[in-house]
Each structure stands twice: as structure tokens, then as C-alpha cells.
Amino acid sequence: MPESMKLRDRITIESFRRIDRDVILGAIEIDQDKCTGCGLCVRACAAGSIELKDKKARMRTVFPICHACADCVAICSRKAIRMTRFLEFKKYFRYLDRGQPELPRKF
Ligand code: SF4
Ligand code: SF4
Description:
This protein has helices at residues 7-12, 19-22, 40-44, 71-75, and strands at 23-24, 27-30, 50-53, 56-59, 81-85, 88-89. By secondary structure, the protein is an alpha+beta fold. It has a domain at 30-89: 2-Layer Sandwich (Alpha-Beta Plaits). The strands form three sheets. Strands 1-6 form a two-stranded antiparallel ribbon. A two-stranded antiparallel ribbon has the order 2-5. Strands 3-4 form a two-stranded antiparallel sheet. The structure holds iron/sulfur cluster (2 copies). The site of one iron/sulfur cluster (SF4) has 14 residues, from helix 3.
């Protein structure tokens, strides 16, 4: 860990209990005209942040957590979803030894 890290940060770095405070979450936009309501993106989202409402996909309105994996973008054959914001860490974070962020996976 960097020497300049404050004690308070050392204590909280392992925790996602205050994820809304420590991280600016990712965000997506769903084109309602293109969406057919197939539900694939709902099943693909590991964060459980997309839901079907009136046969259209949308982000959950209550505390949606988007970790910007872009799986929903890749799986939508209608190209109805686009990422509008990537994750932004406000403080320190750990590298998971996976190199630089990559483009969305293709299915
Ligand atoms: S995968 Fe695309 S078309 Fe299917 S529900 Fe999601 S946004 Fe709509
Ligand atoms: S980018 Fe990933 S976490 Fe965010 S809504 Fe899409 S599937 Fe869910």
C-alpha cells in the first residue's frame, strides 16, 4: 500500500459497505424503441440491476449497482444498450492483476 495512505483509508479499503460513497458507479442507457423485451440483459447482469417493466428493459430505480462490465451491451442483439459512464474510484483500489480495462467481451 502507498505510504501516503491515511489510516482511515487503510481501514475502509477492503470494504464495499459504502460503495456509493467510495465509487462513482457505472451507468447504461437503454433505447426503449429498440428494446424488444427479450430479457437477455436482465439475465446477464450479475449485479441484478436491470429489470423488465412493461416488456421493456430498464435500470432498477432502487439503488442500481452497475460495475460497468458491459455484458448487457454485448448480449443485446438489438444494440439497444450503451454505456454512458465507466466506474470511477474516488479513493484507492486494488488491482486484481488483470491488466488494463478491456473492451466489452463479444459473445
Ligand atoms: S437484451 Fe436488449 S432487447 Fe433484450 S431486453 Fe435487454 S435491452 Fe431489450
Ligand atoms: S454494465 Fe454490467 S453491471 Fe452494468 S447494467 Fe450492464 S450487465 Fe449490469
